[in-house]
Structure formats: C-alpha cells, structure tokens
User: Which sequence fits this backbone?
C-alpha cells in the first residue's frame, strides 16, 4: 500500500508540530496502516534513545568571551565618534537640506505667484484708488486756496 504520508510527517507528528487537522488525519491513518505505524514505532525507538546533553563550557571560554565583547564595545564606541564623517550620514544630511530648499523654495514661489494673481485680478480697483487719492488731493487744494 502506497501512503501519502512521509517520514517528515511522522517526525512532525512525533514532535507534536502538526496542525490539529493534520494530526487527526494522520492518527486515523495510523489505525489503518501497519506500514506507517511500524515506521512511527521505529522512529520513536530511535529518537527516544538519543540523549542530548548540553555542552560543558569552562571558565576560560567565558573569560575569553568577555574580553572579545569588551573589545567590540570599545571599537564601536570609537566608530560612533566619527559618525558625522561617514558618507551615509553626509548623504542623509545633504538630502534633508535639499528637501528643505525645495520645500521652502516652492512655498516662496507659490506666495509670489499668489501676489501676482492678486495684483492682476485687482489692478483696475487699485488704479481707481489712485484716482480717488488724486481727487481727494485736489479737494484739499481747493479748500486751501479758499482760505
């Protein structure tokens, strides 16, 4: 009988890493298929006999490890002092300044354009105001002459 389940599926089942629906299907299949059941039993027997021990790490390792870590920290601190001279930092500052120039230049152009449009739209009114100012001046002159 050819099964759709692989050794990988059986291993995931052993370590309880299959999703619940897949686990249900595999358990149902194991009840019917002696070949897969035998494979699972062999896998369990093999994996149950394997004993994994944590490695013993001596004091000399930790002493050396601390020295290496402290050395890297000192190197990083000395590198951080020169952060302003790094090309990436200079490029970032240049890009930010360029963006500021573009934004403020655009705002300035927009304001100038608004002023031009205002003058164009209100030119006739402004000319009339000048005419009224001239008329008012004439009235003052007439009053002055009358005195």
Assistant:
């Amino acid at each position: 009988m050819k099964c759709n389940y692989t050794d990988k599926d059986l291993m995931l089942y052993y370590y309880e890493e299959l999703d619940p629906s897949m686990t249900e299907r595999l358990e149902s299949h194991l009840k019917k298929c002696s070949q897969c059941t035998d494979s699972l039993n062999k896998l369990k027997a093999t994996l149950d006999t394997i004993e994994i021990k944590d490695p013993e790490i001596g004091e000399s390792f930790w002493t050396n490890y601390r020295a290496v870590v402290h050395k890297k920290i000192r190197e990083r601190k000395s590198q951080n002092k020169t952060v302003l001279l790094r090309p990436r930092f200079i490029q970032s500052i240049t890009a930010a300044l360029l963006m500021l120039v573009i934004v403020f230049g655009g705002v300035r152009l927009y304001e100038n354009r608004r002023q031009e449009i205002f003058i164009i739209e209100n030119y006739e009114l402004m000319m009339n105001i000048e005419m009224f100012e001239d008329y008012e001046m004439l009235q003052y002159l007439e009053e002055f002459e009358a005195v």
